Amino acid sequence: MAIERTFTIIKPDATAAGHVGEIITELERAGFRILALKKLHLTRAQAEGFYAVHSERPFFESLVTFMTEGEIVPIALERDNAITALRELMGPTNASEAPPETIRGKFGTNIERNAMHGSDAPATAAVEIAFFFSRLELDR
Ligand code: UDP
Ligand code: MG
Fold this sequence. Notes:
By secondary structure, this protein is of the alpha+beta class. The chain has one domain (3-138): 2-Layer Sandwich (Alpha-Beta Plaits). 42% of the residues lie in helices and 17% in strands. The protein is built from eight helices and four strands; from the N terminus they run βααβααβααβαα. The chain has helices spanning 12-16, 20-29, 44-50, 60-67, 82-90, 103-107, 122-132, 135-138; strands at 3-10, 33-37, 73-80, 116-118. It has a four-stranded antiparallel sheet, with helices on both faces. The chain is globular. Uridine-5'-diphosphate binds next to loops.
C-alpha cells in the first residue's frame, strides 16, 4: 500500500481537556508522520464551510456550535494506508460505543463530542487538507 495523506482535527472537547499531546503521541506511535499542524478557533462560517456536506443533517447546527466552542488542532498526516489506519485508530463516530483502545473511546464522550475528526476517503482528505493548510505549509 502506497504512502497516503489523511487529515485529522483534535476537536474542542479534547483540546480543552488537555489531550492534544497524548493524541499526537498516539498518532506518531501508530506510524503517522505530521506534515502540517496548527491550533485555531473556527468562526461559525468556517465550521459551516468545513462541514458543508452535512448541512442538511439534523445534527448540523449542534455540530457547528460544538466545533466553534473552543480551539481545535487540525493536522495533515502521512502514512502507508493512512485513511483506513486513522479511521481504525480513531474508532466509530459514537464515542460512547467506541472500543476503549481507540482515541474516541479514550477521549470522546458521545456521538457529537467524539474528540477527533478523520477523513473518509483520499478525495475528502485532499479537500480538507487544503481547507486548513496552504501549499507553502505542505510542500517539502
Ligand atoms: N455527528 C453528530 N451526530 C450524528 C452524527 C455525527 O453530532 O448523528 C457529528 C460527530 O461529531 C461526527 C461529525 O458530526 O464526528 C461528522 O459526522 P460523520 O458522519 O462524518 O462521522 P465521522 O466521519 O466523524 O465518524
Ligand atoms: Mg466523516
